[in-house]
Each structure stands twice: as structure tokens, then as C-alpha cells.
């Protein structure tokens, strides 16, 4: 398996002129974005502004119509470039159903570490550790399809953290969570020291975590303002 150390300096995630269309409609138009070590970049914007599209495009799940993407210093153009970077860059999907395969929570969370080459015992230990950190070790034996929406969210995040990513891409990490769980996740993310890009409507989460923010316009609501450049900094 390849190990990704770089870049020693420079952006961990970089997009230049990123343009993405969905069903022929431009959602992202010439977006520039950089994420450096130590940064927690929040992506804001109204419903439909393109936050999820941006995260998916950065990991190659949605193709770019134009522009360039570099992840950990590597230029990514096709699936062969993106695929090996989806461990080092851990993505939490907006819909946990896209992320959980089960059958049980512990098997699901251990799946990533197993794929990384750990043996069954080591993968299971890694998975339990992640579940304990998230505070849901008691759900380990539960079938994933029996979990509530919030429990699914927590299990999916445990699965991401169990892979020991270098960078996190999180789509609405606190959606469907009660206040105590959201606070625990906020503390875990803050304490992780990991650089991250977070798409979220959660202002409390942004206030606690964001070091920088970009705001995407909503083309549905602002048809005259389709061209939006990212990296609009704001003080936090
Ligand atoms: N699978 C898809 N096929 C076609 N169009 C899509 C698809 N997913 C999203 N879109 C469209 O792309 C645009 C951006 O959607 P996206 O989900 O990225 O927005 P968002 O900012 O994440 O919204 P929200 O805050 O509601 O999650 C919307 O107009 C949406 O209708």
C-alpha cells in the first residue's frame, strides 16, 4: 500500500478553477480553494448552494467539468488518482446510508482498517477504539439498519476516524444529533488536531471549530451570481 507523506508544506487540498455541473446546470464555477495543515475550513451556503457537490468533487465522486484538484500534493484527474486518497482523506457523507454497509456496527467500522491491511484482531481493536471515542461502544453488536439516524451518524464518523485519516471532509457532521452528542463530536473534532473541510449549517459547530470559512452562493436563489470565488476569510 502506498503511504502519503507529502506535501511537507503547501496545501493538503487544493482546487483551482473548479467547475462542476449537475444535470447540465453549473453548480460550482471557477472555485479556488486551499486547505493547509492546522486549518478547519467551513463551507457555508444556503440549501442547494453546492456544499455537498464541492466535497464530492474534491474526492472525485462527482466529475469536474474544468479546473484542477491536488490532494496531499498529488494531481488528481481520474478515479485511479482519487481512489487511493480516499483513506488518507476521510469523508463523512451527508447521508449515513451511503456510508454504512454493516452488517453490524463493529464489522462496519472495522471494514476500513481491514481494507488498509490490518489483520482481523487489529482492525477490531481499532474499530472498538473509535467507537469508544465517539461514545457508542455499546452499539457495537447492533445491526446498522436498526440504528436511529443520529446513531448512524455517529457510527459513520467512527468508521471514518478508525481509518486514521490525515484530513477530514465532513458533510453536516452534527445533523440528526442531540445536543450532548453534537458537543461530544465537536470536542472530538477539535481535539483531533486534524485539518478538515466541513460543510455545515450548524453555527455552534462553526463558532467552536472554524478557523476560516468560504461561502457559496445559491444559484437557485441568485441566478445572476453564478460565479463565486472561494476563500472569503472571516474572523472567528
Ligand atoms: N445527484 C444529483 N443529480 C442532479 N443534481 C444534483 C444532484 N445532487 C445535487 N444536485 C443539485 O446540485 C445543486 C447543489 O446541491 P448540493 O447537494 O451540493 O447543495 P448543498 O449546498 O449541499 O445543499 P444542502 O445544504 O441542502 O445539503 C442543487 O441544485 C441540487 O439540486
UniProtKB/TrEMBL annotation:
List the PROSITE patterns hit by this protein, alphabetically.
ABC_TRANSPORTER_1, ABC_TRANSPORTER_2
The organism's superkingdom is given as Bacteria
Q: Which residues form the ABC transporter domain?
A: 13-235
- Keywords assigned: ATP-binding, Cell membrane, Membrane, Nucleotide-binding, Transport
GO cellular component, as recorded: ATP-binding cassette (ABC) transporter complex
**Which GO MF terms does the UniProt record name?**
ATP binding; ATP hydrolysis activity; ATPase-coupled transmembrane transporter activity
- Cite the PANTHER family for this sequence: ENERGY-COUPLING FACTOR TRANSPORTER ATP-BINDING PROTEIN ECFA1, HEAVY METAL TRANSPORTER
Return the similarity comment. Answer: Belongs to the ABC transporter superfamily.
Which protein are we looking at? Putative cobalt transport system ATP-binding protein
> What organism is listed for this UniProt entry?
Thauera linaloolentis (strain DSM 12138 / JCM 21573 / CCUG 41526 / CIP 105981 / IAM 15112 / NBRC 102519 / 47Lol)
